[in-house]
Amino acid sequence: MSHTTLPVFRQRGLPWLLLLPQLTVTLLFFIWPAGQAVWQSFWMEDAFGLSTEFVGFDNYRQLLTDPAYYRSLWTTLIFSAGVTLLSMGLSLLLAAMADQVVRGARFYRNLLIWPYAVAPAIAGVLWLFLFHPTVGVLAYLLDCLGIDWNHFLRGDQALLLVVIAAAWKQISYNFLFFLAGLQAIPASLHEAAAIDGAGPLRRFYSITFPLLSPTTFFLLVVNLVYAFFDTFGIIHAVTQGGPGDTTTTLVYKVYRDGFIGLDLGGSAAQSVLLMLLVGALTVVQFRFIERKVQY
Amino acid sequence: MVENRRAVTLISHLILWFGVLLVLFPIWIAFVASSHSSEALLSGTVPLWPGDRLLLNYRQIFLGGGQSTLGVPLLRMLFNSLVMALGIAFGKILISVLAAYAVVFFRFRLRMLCFWLIFVTLMLPVEVRILPTFQVVADLGLLNSYTGLTLPLIASATATFLLRQFYLTLPPELLEAARVDGAGPIRFLFDILLPLSRTNLAALFVILFIYGWNQYLWPLLITTDESYYTIVMGVQRLLAVGDNEVQWNIVMPTTLLAMLPPVGVVLIMQRLFIKGLIETEK
Amino acid sequence: MIRRTLGLVLAAALSSQAQAATEIEWWHAMGGELGEKVNAIADGFNKSQNEYLLKPVFKGNYTETMTAAVAAFRAHQQPHIVQVFEVGTASMMAAEGAVYPTWELMRDAGVTFDPNDYLSAVTGYYSSDDGKMLSMPFNSSTPVLYYNKTALDQVHAEPPKTWEEMGQVGQKLIDAGYKCGFTTGWQSWVQLENFSARHDQPFASNNNGFSGLDTELTFNGAAQVKHIDQLAQWQKSGIFSYGGRRSDSAPTFYSGECAMYMGSSASYAGVKNNAGFAFGVAPLPYWKSLIDTPKNTIIGGATLWTLRGHPQADYKGVAEFFNYLSSPAVQSDWHQFTGYLPITHAAADLTRQQGFYERNPGTDVAIRQMTAGQPSANSKGLRLGNFVQIRDIINEELETVWSGNSSAQEALDRAAERGNKLLRKFERSNG
Predict the structure, then answer these.
(1) How confident is the model at residue A164 (pLDDT cuts 50, 70, 90)?
(2) Which residues neighbour C50 within 8 Å (Cβ) at sequence distance 6 or greater?
(3) Is residue B109 exposed (0-12), middle (13-18) or buried (19+ Cβ within 10 Å)?
(4) ipTM here
(5) How far is the CA of C184 from the CAs of A151, C143, C154, in angstroms?
(6) Cβ atoms B234, B70 nearer than 8 A
(7) Chain C residue closest in CA terms to B131
(8) CA distance C75 to chain B (A)
(9) Which of A87, A226, B150, B244 is the right S-S partner for A167, CB 3.0 to 4.6 Å?
(10) How far apart are CA C295 and CA C341, in angstroms?
(11) CATH of domain A60-294
C-alpha cells in the first residue's frame, strides 16, 4: 500500500490525542447505537418501553416470513432501478450534448448543477406540488390528455412520482461526472472514426460508451446507494410510504415500523439486516476505491 | 467533419435547453405559486404566470403565516438551519483533519483498529440506525439542543477518508524537509499541512454545508421544541395539516427560501463545489 | 416619577407571578383553523384562573403526535396531555405505567366529576371494561350520509334509510344519467367498523377487544361479507364508486358526480363550503334484512390522555382544565364551530336551546344517531392493538375487492388472518 512509503512521526501519546474527538463521536453515535440495534433486535418491547421480553431470533423470523418485507425489498429494487436509469440516462444525454457544443458548455453546466443542493425533502415538495391531484399543473395536464392522475390512490403513480423527484435531484451529479468523463476522451479518437465514416451515433456506441464505462460503473454504484439510503426525505414528504405500502422502501420501513408502528424489536432487526447489506456494499466499493488509488 | 456540423450543434443546444427547462420547471412553478393567493391556487385552474401577491406572501411568511401553525418565526428556523449547517461543516472538518493526520503520519499500536473503527461508519447511514441513535441522544439529554442537532451527524467518516486520501498523495520529501528544519508534528500540521490542504478544506466545506443544511429526518426526530425547528423540516410541518387544505401560497415561498442558501453556495462557489463533489466520492 | 417606578415594579411583580404559574403542556394534532380554535380554548382557560398556564403545542398529524409523545415519554420529556386518535386507544391503555386514567386523575385532584354527565356513546369507547373513563374525549365524530338534494329530487327519491332503499335510489340515479350513486370515505371505519356496530355484529372477539388482549378479528362474518359483496356488485353498475381510503372521495360529491357521500359528521363545514348545491344529512343506512332497529354508530376522532411523570401538583391543573373543557359553554362552542360531537348532555342541550340545530339542519343527525338506544357489546367501540396497521390491511384487502381481484369472502378472510398476526404481536409485547 502506498502509505507505507511515507515517513512518519514516532510520538506515542499525540496520535491518540488527535484521534480522541473522532473516536469519541464514533463510539458514542455509531458503534454504541449499532450495538444497541443488534441488542434490541432480540427483544420485544411495548411502545412506552414498560415491558420487555427476550425473544431470540423471533423478530428476524417474523420479518423473513412477512410478505410485506419482501414487497418492500421489491419496491426498493424497482425504485432504485428506476431512479438510476432515469437519472443516468438523462444525464448522459445532456452531458454528451454539452460535450458536443463548442460554446456555452459552461453556461449549461451552471444551469444544470444546482439541483444537487436541494434537500431531498424539498425536492419532494416541489414535485408533489406539480403532480398534486387537485392543484398540480402536471396533474391537470395529464387530465387533459385523458390520464387520471391521483398518486394518493394509485400505488404505481405514487412510485413513479417519487422516482421522478429522486431522479431529478440526482441529474446534476451524474451530469458533472459524465461530462468530466467525456471531456477526458481524446478528440483524436473521434476524428479518426469520423474519417472512417462512422456517424455520431455509431461513434458514441463504439468509442465513447466503452471508454466511459469506469465512470458509468462508478455512477451506477453511487446512484444505487443514493436511491437506497438518501431518499428518505423525498418519500416522507411526498407519499409517506403510501398508498398502502407501495412506496415503502427498506429504509422507509425501518422508520415506519419503528417510529409509527412502534415495533422497536422488528425495526431494530431490519436495521441490522440493512447494516449487513451496507457492509457488503462498502466492501465492494472499498476494493474498487483502493484499486483506483493504487494505480 | 463529414456530417452537417451545424445541424448537430443545433440539436445539441435544443436538447440542452430541454434539460435546463426540465430542471428549472419545478422552481418556476414554485415561484409562480408563491405569488398567488391560496384561493387562486385551490380554484382548479393552475396559473403558469406570476400573480400580484408575491410581496404579500413573503411578508406573511416572515411576519406570521407559518408562525400560527408552527409556533416559530421563519427567521428562527433559518437561523437554526444555519447553525446546524455550520456546526456540522466545521465540526466535521475539525475532527477529521486531526484524525486523518494521526492515521497517516503516525505509527502507533492499534492504528489499524482505529482506522477500521472510524471507517466502518462509512457504511452506516444515519437513516439505518436512527432509532438507537435517537435513544442514545435522548439518554445523553441532548434532545432539543444544538449539540443534539449537530454532534451525532459529525460522526461520519467521509471527510476523514477524503483527507486521508489527500495526505497520501503528498510527496514524502515534504516531511523529511520539515524534520531537517526541526519542525515537530504540531508545527508540521499548522505550517505545512493545513496551508497545503486549503482548497481541499474549502471544497469539503461546501459539500458539508449542503449536507448539514439539507438534514431532514434527524431534526424531525429530535426536536420536540419548535424553537429548534430547521427550515427544511418546517416545510414538512406546513404540509402536515391533516384534513385541512394545505396553504400552498405559504408552503411554496417557504420552500424556495429553504433551498436558497445551499443553492446559492453552489452557484457562488462553483469551482470548489465541483472539486469537492468529485473528491468526496472518489 | 415615583408613581411610574412603582407601577413598573408592580408590573414586574405581577408578571413574575404570572411566570410562576405552573406550566402544563398539551400536544395536539389540530392544524389550521382547528389549531387556532385550540389556542383560543387554551387562552380561555388561562384567563379563567392564574395558577396554571396551559401551553398547546401542534405536533403534526395524529400519527406524528402520538409517536412524538411516546418517544418523549421514553426520553422522560413527555407533555402532560397528549391528543391521541381513537385507533391508538389500545396502545395507550396497555401502557398502564405511562397514562394517568382520567377518573383517577379527577378523583386525586378532588375536582367534581360525574361520569353520567358525559354521553356514554362517546365515553364508552374510551372507558375500561368496568366503565371507568380513561381519557378525556375531545373531538369525536361519527359517520353520516350526506346527500345531494337536487339530484335526489330530480329522480323523485327520498334519502335512503336502509341499504335496500340505497340500491333502488342508486339505480334510479344511474338510470337518470348519473355516473355514480354514492361513494364513501374511510371505508374501514364506515363500511366495516360502523357497519358491524350498527348491525350488532362483533368486529372482534372479547367484546371487540374490550375484555382482553387475546382478541381475534371476526369481521369476516356472514353479515359483513354480504355487505361488502353487495358493494362490489354495485361498484360494477356504478351505484357505488370507490374513491380512496381517507376523505379523498369527497370532491366527487362536491362536483355533483356522486349524489351521496358517507363521511365524518365533522366534515359538515367542509361540505357546506364546497358543495354548490342544496345538500342534506341523513343517518347511515342499515340492512332491514339484518336488523329491525339499528344500533348506534361508533365514533372516530381523538381524546386527551394524561401522561404520568410530572409533579402531582401539575395534575391538579390538568384536572381543572378537563373540567373547564367539559363546561357547557366551552363544549357547545367547540361543537358548533367544528362539527365534532358535544361530549356532555348539558352541551348538547345548550346547543339545542340556542337554536343551532334549527339554523343548521342536519347537524343533529350525528348526535341522534349516536345516542339512539343503549350501546351493546358490539356497538360500544373497538379496542385493538396495532389498529393503525390493521386498518391499512383492511384498506388493502378491500381494494382488491373493488378492483375485482378477489371476492368479499376471500378478502375479509385474508384481512382477518393478517390482522390477527398483528394482534398476537401486540399481545406478546404488552402481555
Answers:
(1) very high
(2) C17, C18, C21
(3) exposed
(4) 0.88
(5) 19, 10, 22
(6) yes
(7) C71
(8) 5
(9) A87
(10) 18
(11) 1.10.3720.10
Domain parsing of chain A, residue ranges: 60-294
Nearest CA in chain B to C36: B68
Q: Is the pLDDT of residue C2 over 60?
A: no
Domains and CATH numbers, chain C: 23-141+299-359 (3.40.190.10), 143-297+387-413 (3.40.190.10)
Q: Is C64 on the interface with B (CB under 8 A)?
A: yes
Res. C215: pLDDT tops 90: yes
Structure confidence at residue B82 as a pLDDT band (50, 70, 90):
very high
Buried b (16+ CB within 10 A) or exposed e, B164-180: bbbbbebeeeebeebee
Interface test with C, best of A151, A240, A262, A267 (most C CBs within 10 A): A262
DSSP assignments along C30-90, one per residue: --HHHHHHHHHHHHHHHHH-SSEEEEEEE-SSHHHHHHHHHHHHHTT---SEEEEEGGGHH
Going edge to edge, which strands form the sheet with C180-184? Answer: C180-184, C258-264, C143-148, C279-282
Q: How much is the pTM?
A: 0.83
Band of the pLDDT at B2, cuts 50, 70, 90? very low
Residue of B6, B16, B243 to mutate, testing the A interface (most A Cβ within 10 Å of its Cβ): B16
Under 8 Å between Cβ of A42 and B136:
no
What does the pLDDT look like over B157-212, one tens digit per residue?
A: 778 888 888 888 888 888 888 878 877 888 888 888 898 888 889 888 988 999 99
Digit-coded pLDDT (tens) for B5-32: 778 788 889 999 999 998 899 999 888 8
Amino acid residing at A165: A
Set out the domains of chain B in order of their start, with CATH numbers: 34-280 (1.10.3720.10)
Asked whether the beta carbons of A59 and A269 are under 8 A apart, the reply is: yes
Nearest to B242 among C61, C71, C270 (CB): C61
Alpha-carbon gap, residue B232 to B219, rounded angstroms: 9
CB pair distance less than 8 Å for C58 and B138: no
The torsion defined by the Cα of C98, C101, C102 and C104, in degrees rounded to 10, comes to -120
CA distances from C368 to A32, A117, A137, C25, C45 (A): 57, 56, 44, 34, 30
Which of C28, C43, C64 is the mutation pick for testing B, counting most B CBs within 10 A? C64
Q: From residue C97, give the alpha-carbon distance in Å to each of B158, C74, C133, C306, C431.
A: 43, 12, 16, 11, 13
Closest Cβ opposite residue C36 in set B68, B224, B242: B68
Per the CB < 8 Å rule, is B216 touching A119? yes
